[in-house]
Write a structure and sequence with these properties.
The protein is an alpha/beta fold and about 140 residues long. It contains six helices and six strands, in the order βααβααβαβββα. The chain has a six-stranded mixed beta sheet, sandwiched between helices.
Length: about 140
């Protein structure tokens, strides 16, 4: 079975802006080695952070998001999953994974997501740990 992966916003930002290991994880989806999944809520947060926190122009941010849509599946989430973590923004990450039946969430969130390690069978891992499974 091919892994099904949800990338947290922080991994998308790190990978698409700075590269490195987070980019290598995203590239696995681009190469078809894993199935990458996301939702509009994650993409909206990603685009918002590119413009408000990192100073990207709206058109440049939109172009990056559009590029992700070439290889990430969009899932609609009902936004019913609440209170899984102390950060409400993280609930959308987990809900996206649960709705689509993901095997992994790849995140750098050491405060809220990584301590869970697993949610309903979805492994929650750091980018480096995820990447080692493919090397």
């Amino acid at each position: 079975m091919q892994p099904i992966v949800v990338y947290d916003t922080n991994v998308l930002i790190s990978g698409m802006v700075w590269g490195g290991i987070p980019y290598d994880c995203i590239e696995l989806a681009q190469q078809g080695k894993v199935e990458g999944v996301t939702c509009n809520e994650i993409l909206n947060e990603f685009e918002d952070k590119l413009t408000t926190k990192l100073g990207f122009s709206p058109s440049d941010a939109a172009e990056i998001v559009t590029g992700l849509l070439d290889f990430l599946q969009i899932v609609e989430i009902p936004n019913r999953l609440k209170g899984v973590t102390a950060d409400p923004d993280d609930d959308m990450i987990i809900e996206c994974a649960v709705v689509w039946g993901a095997t992994h969430i790849v995140t750098g969130d050491q405060k809220h997501l990584l301590p869970l390690k697993n949610y309903q069978g979805v492994l929650i891992v750091k980018p480096a740990d995820f990447l080692t499974q493919f090397r």
